[in-house]
């Protein structure tokens, strides 16, 4: 989560590799740098690095390196809310890994494809794909992406009103991320848990506890310095407080929710401007 130091080290490595003229290594440095930039919320810089890596990798013809770049650009397209483009990039990546038999990457790509179907409103397809990703991750012992698949399923189940399944999935995701000590993933899972709790996933008597999950998510997002995730958690907390009957008469928390909502919108607006439209 120390993005600033990571960027410094990666930029230094990129300059060294450029001096050596090794195109494969240059592509790897660009790819690493682009992913960190994307996590950090620097979308324009991420796009330049990731597209540069993909162009080099297509020239070199290494299928798995091309897949990694397609995955990264698919994530970027998701952040741009260009879900059709994301699906196209991810399907291209999946076609390559299916051809070469790389099952580790299959699960990663299927998780992202499932999330994209969810964002496009196709819940049935999202559940089918995420369940397959979950199965592959479990077989391979890939705990990190298993947690992501379970969190994705939790979000779809929540939208479908299947609160028990949503609750079970997000609890499993939080347990995995907590064990792995992955702060940014745990922060996202806590936010999803807050949404499920607010919807009554643990019963009406526990709805007010959603605020605790949102605040823990915000704290972790700030610790890792991920501005986008901070904004998402601000927005989730604000919407919960503004709609919840439990907090309607609490002027202090309503004012806090309004302030955090405005801060989230400022971040989203700045990112949209940096991201640009395709």
Describe the structure concisely for a colleague:
This protein is mainly alpha-helical and 278 residues long. The protein has helices at 3-20, 23-40, 43-60, 63-79, 83-100, 103-119, 123-140, 143-160, 163-180, 183-198, 210-224, 227-243, 251-275.
Q: What does this molecule look like?
A:
The protein is mainly alpha-helical and 278 residues long. It is built from 13 helices and no strands. The protein has helices spanning 3-20, 23-40, 43-60, 63-79, 83-100, 103-119, 123-140, 143-160, 163-180, 183-198, 210-224, 227-243, 251-275. Helix 5 packs antiparallel against helix 6 (103-119), helix 7 packs antiparallel against helix 8 (143-160) and helix 10 (183-198) packs parallel to helix 12. The chain is globular.
Q: What's the mean pLDDT score?
A: 91
Q: Summarize the biggest pleated sheet.
A: none
State the helicity in percent bands.
over 70%
Specify Rg, calculated over alpha carbons: 19 Å
Total beta strand runs: 0
SSE arrangement, N to C: HHHHHHHHHHHHH
Compute the separation of the termini in Å. 29 Å
Strand content: under 5%
Q: pLDDT under 50 segments (min length 5)?
A: none
Total count of helical runs of at least 4 residues: 13
How are the elements arranged and paired?
Elements: H1 3-20, H2 23-40, H3 43-60, H4 63-79, H5 83-100, H6 103-119, H7 123-140, H8 143-160, H9 163-180, H10 183-198, H11 210-224, H12 227-243, H13 251-275
Helix pairs in contact: 1-2, 2-3, 2-4, 3-4, 4-5, 4-6, 5-6, 6-7, 6-8, 7-8, 8-9, 8-10, 9-10, 10-11, 10-12, 11-12, 12-13
């Amino acid at each position: 989560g120390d993005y600033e130091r990571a960027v410094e080290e990666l930029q230094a490595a990129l300059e060294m590799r450029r001096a050596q003229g090794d195109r494969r290594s240059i592509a790897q440095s660009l790819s690493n740098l682009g992913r960190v930039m994307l996590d950090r919320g620097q979308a324009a810089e991420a796009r330049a690095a990731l597209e540069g890596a993909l162009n080099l990798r297509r020239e070199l013809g290494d299928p798995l390196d091309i897949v990694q770049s397609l995955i990264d650009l698919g994530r970027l397209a998701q952040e741009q809310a260009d879900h059709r483009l994301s699906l196209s990039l991810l399907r291209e990546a999946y076609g390559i890994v299916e051809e070469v038999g790389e099952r580790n990457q299959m699960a990663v790509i299927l998780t992202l494809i499932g999330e994209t179907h969810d964002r496009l409103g196709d819940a049935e397809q999202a559940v089918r794909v995420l369940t397959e990703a979950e199965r592959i991750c479990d077989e391979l012992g890939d705990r990190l992406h298993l947690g992501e698949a379970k969190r994705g399923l939790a979000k779809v189940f929540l939208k479908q009103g299947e609160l028990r399944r949503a609750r079970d999935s997000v609890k499993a995701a939080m347990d995995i991320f907590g064990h792995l000590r992955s702060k940014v993933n745990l922060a996202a899972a806590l936010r999803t848990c807050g949404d499920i709790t607010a919807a009554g996933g643990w019963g009406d008597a526990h709805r007010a506890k959603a605020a605790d999950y949102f605040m823990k998510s915000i704290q972790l997002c700030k610790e890792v310095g991920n501005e986008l995730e901070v904004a998402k958690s601000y927005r989730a907390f604000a919407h919960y407080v503004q709609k919840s009957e439990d907090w309607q008469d609490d002027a202090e928390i309503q004012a806090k929710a309004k302030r955090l909502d405005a801060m989230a919108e400022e971040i989203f607006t700045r990112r949209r401007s940096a991201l640009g439209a395709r």
